Amino acid sequence: MRRLSAANCPTTTFIAYMKTRVILSNILYPLCTLLALIAVWWVASLSIGIPLFFPTPSAVLAELGGLLVSDSFYLAIGGTLSRTIISFILAFAIGVCAAALAGLFKPMHRILRPIVVILRAIPTMSVILISVLWLDNFWSPVLIGFLIVFPLVYTGMYEAIGEVDRELIEMARLYKVSRKDTLTKLLIPSVTPTVLTVAKSSVSLNVKVIIAAEVIALTARSIGAQMQLSKITIDIPVLFAWTVAAILLAFLLEFAVSLVQFTVRRHYDKA
Amino acid sequence: MKKLLLVFMSLVLGFTALSFGCSSPAPIVNVVLPDGAPSLALVSLFDQTDLGGKKVTFEIVPADTIAQKVSSGAADVAIIPTNAAANLYNKGIDIKLAATSVQGLLYMVGKTAISSFDELKGKVIYSIGQNNTPEFVFKYVLTGGGIDAADIVTGETASDGKITICFKSDGSEILPLLIQNRADYAILGEPVATTAKTKANLVTVLDLQSEWSKLNGSASYPQACLVVSGRLASDKTFVNAFISAAKQNDDWIIDNSSEVLAKLQAKNSLLTVNFTADIIRACNIRTVSAKDAKADVIAYLTVLKDYNAAFIGGKLPDDNFYCIYED
Amino acid sequence: MIKLKNVTKNYGSLKVLDDITLELEDGKITCIIGGSGTGKSTLLNVLAGLTDFEGTVLTDNATVSYMFQSERLIPTLTARQNVEFVLGAMSPDERKAAADAMLSAVELTDFQNLYPKALSGGMKQRVAMARAFAYPSDVLLVDEPFKGLDMVLTEKLTKLFTDILQKDGRTVVYVTHNIGEAVLLADRIIVLSALPAKLVYDVNIDIPKDKRSLTDSKLFAIRNEIYTVLKENATDR
Fold it and tell me: Is the pLDDT reported for residue A131 higher than 70?
């Protein structure tokens, strides 16, 4: 009879196997998809045959390298990032508070809901074109970001509140638990997962619309302005490189939210 | 089901093969124009199907797409901003400048005329064209007129002792500001400049074309030009015929100003401006052959290069850029 | 003393409780038996003040604990934190002592830092039990807490319950459909008919709890009576 040591214990082998699978699915598969997409891009670029207007991945990579060593790159990223963070925090804070109030007072929801529906439906470009006429070129993109993200946060949070277990609320009421405790120990942990999910999906949307607004508003020190400039000087590979940079920025922000999600989950899973 | 698919596939393949197999009887020269005032440069030619021994078609496209059309070869002849022409040439696109067409159409409008540039200090001048011809031409005019470059700033609020330029993406964003009296001065292109003067009761404060001329000796700066593909450039007959027709157009549009808009819209222009003879004159549409325009073009590109070399593709284009025939 | 007078509860057009008049003695365990869906939980909810009703309930401002059918534990809090959740009115020291005492009474001291996710059904009800007892209430309402648990576990948990209760002495209203459980546990048994629920049987049991056994003839008789009453008053639900 074979002795069970840690090395050939079925359990440890299984754990090792599961770890490999996790690594595989989290890194290898996305990597393969990414490589496939780059391959398609390369083929498309070569077959269209106008490298000036549809550059190859390698040309774009070269431009991106050039950007990374220029000051204007970091200024632009910094500018766009700061506007994104400001508008995201505003949209998030106001969205969460509004939804909390709406959860408590029905009339509030009745007032806010049509507003939110309209905001969701308004074409982004209209809002950009209108706000550019009235706000300066720093706050215009911030407003756009806010108007696009606020409805998402409000709706997500409101629905999360609705999904809080009624029975638990009843229990808290019966046991005369203080409002503060009900809020901090029951309601907030209950809505946090949904709210974080909403945050994750809306943060890259936020970046995206802010950049679009920056192009029209001609915001100084912004990714949008740099994109516009590269278009004027017909440096399309640079435009592509900025696009890649914008995508990476969005990924970074989503990752930041994921870290928050991870920390929150781990906090509740320690058993 | 399988049979149906087979029949369908063979039909599709058949048609594709046919379209490749059949070559067009004679190559057509595609003339492409950007939607906007520069398209006035060839309006009277729109109805022609033959010119200089070749078949021609005319097409108006959104101004943003013109560079791409020239680069891809979809346009054999095009009216395009001169800086873009130089830029593409420097980037290796096979085109030549056959003539200049728009000799500048930028104007500063405002409530009252000024007697010196110093009166603009402490004010905000709204303008289109950041990082583009309007910005560079205006700055050139100011510095040439004695204003220190350090006193010209970009921003949104006025600053003592400085001339602040506030850029907007489009004339349509500046117009409301002028009408509401939130803007004192604005640099606009025609025909928006005339519209602004009418709607907001303003006057022309500066004619940037003549200001340029005062500094430079050139008649003006050739804002837009006529380019032809490298291949077409070798057809001297065609190019000369085209340029003569364009020269005739310069007068035609002023004499027949009332017909201009209809002709443009027939080619899918999105313009709705009521082009009067005055507006058209202010657009400075004047065709000058490459031989005669070369010096002015070089002067213009040199000024642009000083502000942002990337704007013209890094350097002045070499002599091959100019489509000049040894007579 | 808790008094109910002419309590009626309607859910829309459905009458659930029909003119219930009842007096509950302090310090006694009253068991409420009825078939499934006969308004037993509704009666508890009326006593807890969780639902509106017609009629009068006089409670002298008695505070109420409740052991619900589904344990109703907050998933993002540990067992201990769930118990302490309802003790917010106490000082931190009192709270700690009360939680320690009750967790120990339900034998969950070793598991107090686990989350409900990691606890079995029986353990979760024990946490709910600790919570209900730790809370300084005058009345404890219990709604079929061991439904769905196996017989052995139910017996064990019921014993745990009665042990704690013995030292405690608060008024208990205990809803169950298990007649055997009721006769062993209760000072008084009330039977509700099918909807609309009326009081159809009421018996006091004077035999001391530690002397009770299901083989006892008197208890046996009561059990049969209750069974008969239930059958007579059942719906075909």
Answer: yes
Per the CB < 8 Å rule, is A132 touching B131? no
Closest CA to A266 of C153, B204, C115, B172: C115
The torsion region of residue B50 among left (phi > 0), alpha (psi -120 to 50) and beta comes to: beta
Distance from CA of A32 to the nearest CA of B (A): 32
Among residues B216, B244, B279, the one where a domain terminates is B216
Residues B60 and B124 placed together within one structural domain of the fold: no
CA-CA distance, C139 to C125, in Å (whole number)? 18
Is B in contact with C (3 or more beta carbon pairs below 8 Å)?
Answer: no
- Chain-chain contact of A175 with C117 (C-beta, under 8 angstroms): no
pLDDT at A241: 95
Q: Show residues of chain A in contact with B154, CB under 8 Å.
A: 220
Confidence of residue B178 (pLDDT cuts 50, 70, 90): very high
C contacts of A160 (beta carbons < 8 Å): none
Chain segment C24-34, per-residue pLDDT in tens: 888 889 999 88
Instruction: Say how many domains are in chain B.
Output: 2
pLDDT tens digit sequence for B216-233: 888 899 999 999 999 999
Q: Is residue B7 part of a domain?
A: no
Q: What is the ipTM of this complex?
A: 0.87
Sorted by where each begins, the domain ranges of chain A are: 1-49, 57-269
Looking at domain A57-269, which of 1.10.3720.10, 1.10.287.70, 2.60.120.200, 1.10.10.60 is its CATH number? 1.10.3720.10
CA distance A207 to A83: 9
Nearest-Cα residue of chain A relative to residue C141: A174
DSSP string, C125-149: HHHHHHHHHHS--SEEEEE-TTTTS
Q: Is the dihedral of CA B217, B219, B224, B230 positive or negative?
A: negative
| Residue A179: closest C-alpha in chain C | C88
Ordered DSSP codes for A69-104: TSHHHHHHHHHHHHHHHHHHHHHHHHHHHHHHHHHH
What is chain C's alpha carbon radius of gyration, rounded to the nearest angstrom?
18
B37 vs B193: CA distance, rounded Å = 12
The Cα–Cα gap between C150 and C156 comes to 10
- Beta-strand relationship, C171-176 and C29-33: parallel
Partner-chain residue, chosen from B87, B131, B168, that has the shortest CB–CB distance to A234 = B87
Same domain flag for C157 and C76: no
pLDDT of residue A271: 39
Looking at CA atoms only, how far is residue B152 from chain A in angstroms? 16
pLDDT at residue B21, as a whole number: 47
| Chain A contact for C76 (CB, 8 A cutoff) | yes
Search chain B and give the residue with CA nearest A231: B64
Statement to judge: residues C141 and C96 lie in one domain: no
| Domain endpoint, select from C135, C165, C180 | C135
- Residue C159 has a pLDDT of 84
A chain contacts of residue C50, beta-carbon cutoff 8 Å: 170, 173-174
Contact assignment for A174 to C117 by CB distance below 8 Å: no
Kindly list the strands in the beta sheet with C14-24, ordered across the sheet, starting from the edge strand earlier in the chain.
Answer: C14-24, C2-11, C54-58
Query: C237 in a domain, yes or no?
Result: no
The residue type of B322 is Y
Neighbour subunits, A (≥3 Cβ pairs < 8 A): B, C
